[in-house]
Amino acid sequence: MAEPILKWAGGKRGLLREIIALMPRDFRDRTLHEPFFGGGAVTFWIEPKMGTINDINTKLINFYVVVRDHVDELIEDARKHRYEKEYFYRARAEFNEIVRNGFKIPNIRLASLLLYLNKTAFNGLYRENRRGEFNVPFGRYKNPKIVDEEKLRKASEVLKRLEIYNEDFSYTLRVAKPGDLVYFDPPYYPLSETANFTSYSKDSFGYKDQKRLRDVCLKLHKRGVYFVLSNSYVEPVLELYEGIDEFEMFKVYAKRPINSKADRRGAVPELLVTNVPREERVGLKTAKRLVEAGAIKRNTTGVKSLIEYLKLKRSS
User: Fold this and answer.
1) With a threshold of 0.85, does the pTM exceed it?
2) Based on the domain organization, do 115 and 264 belong to the same domain?
3) Among 32, 165, 174, 271, which residue's beta carbon has the most beta carbons within 10 A?
């Protein structure tokens, strides 16, 4: 089973059960689109047979194109990196220089540097200034694993089945067909004026964009496209989706480990919205079983399947 290969603020590993619970039961057989890809926890867990991923961050999309098409070269280059403070700042400067000078996708060196910075920067953050430059400082870790070859190769296998875009999320109106499934995970609406962190790219994602996203969901619904959307549980977002009879909203809680203040890294309320009819959904009980089965497969060394694991457990 594939896993995210980058640390990413707002990653959805902790909400997988709740997200999968709202999807149609045959979700693995549907074409999946993820327009705000980030770390890609949902897509990597589902391992769709076909679909698309997208992100407005060109450096991030370059990384995934390289993972898909040039994983051997990426692994070879990334193995040369060193976990040292001085080296980190040289690598960050090189990354930003490539960005300033302009680059064409695929750029293997840029992808290698992004992987290194992601694994060694403070708190695993990805943040850009207004010039589009990566500006997170050096992070202190005991022994960070920069290159996880197995994860990279598994992610490459999944990405080879997908088309990769670097556009506005509205591209889904062009590519999604009736019966397809879309998972939207936009930059969250801020919980407060001082909690506005949307610096995954130099372009912000404001209320007008949130409203455009709601309108895209409406258009997709009319075309017979299913969607699940996550966002922050705040009044401006709730107002966008409430009152739409075909949409159902849910309040869930997710842990957010990335925060500058340790006492604020607890569970926070989040919003899930979907147009999947109740009678077609996976349901929380089944979703929990599916996600837990995947975790067992991933973490049990030498065990090829859940069935084998259960047999071993019963006989022990």
Assistant:
1) yes
2) no
3) 32
